[in-house]
Amino acid sequence: MEDYPKNLAELESWFSDEAACRAYLAELRWPEGFVCPRCGCTQTWATSRSLLVCSACQYQASVTAGTIFEGTRKPLTMWFRAAWWVCAQKNGASALGLQQILGLGSYKTAWTWLHKLRRAMVRPGRDRLSGRVEVDETFIGAVEKGHIGRQHGNKALVVVAAQEDGRGIGRIRMKAIDRVSQANLHGFIRESVTPGSTVVTDGFKLYRNMDKLGYVHEYSVVMKSQRTASDLLPRVHRVISLLKRWLMGTHQGAVSREHLGYYLDEFTFRFNRRTSRSRGKLFYRLLQQAVSIEPVPYRAMVKHVRGKKPRNHHM
Known about the structure:
By secondary structure, the protein is of the alpha/beta class. Helices cover 37% and strands 15% of the residues. The strands form two sheets. A five-stranded mixed sheet has the order 6-5-4-7-8, with helices on both faces. A three-stranded antiparallel sheet has the order 1-2-3, with no helix packed on it. 32% of the residues are buried.
């Protein structure tokens, strides 16, 4: 049963100490109760260091080990407030805002926390899109001279899928890819769309042969049509427009290519839950996913980033 605070006052009341936070995470991580991975026993006792010890074989487990909270030196009460604040920001969150709202002394800490929370916005094994799904690519970045069509120069390339919901838009998926190739486009579709669905694209040749992957493929060649790409693929182009507006408005367009995937995850998380009126439910989903993904240390996050030090414009 889903149980979550309905407002900020309830959040403060429910999670006033570490024990309450750990108990909540344990419920999310082991909804059927903890089972020892070594011997299968379900009986445990807790140590003074908040470890669960198997009564049969003495195996020790931590509710935070193997999650985004692993190794944190900050209290979980602060993490819970961070998660609530991120979910409460209708148009997205920034590291500077998180630093200010929590009173964190380090921008680096706020930046790291925010990126960890963004990683938790993608649920492992999430359902793929189905039915009729529009797919197209777009470029993120400033206009560059000498690059036309599907040439992208230094701009980031993102492929987007939008599920039809009557005349509206259902769920979406998006992913940054390094180049336009059939392997990348087909790979994204296989990751994002259930076989048997109808995939709607423009006439770009690299989308062809999707029937061999188990999809029904519908496409229109824009050059031979009096309609524009936006007319032919209205839902996916609407999503692309909203994504670019969000990146420019919330993050002033200052998103590094190395971390673009995190921002795409955040946009997808917010868009797919845009009709939810409950901040508490978004908070619940975020924490539920936070205990389901592997931890990623700060060093791994900045490994391939020039300078290896987050700056204030990398939200």
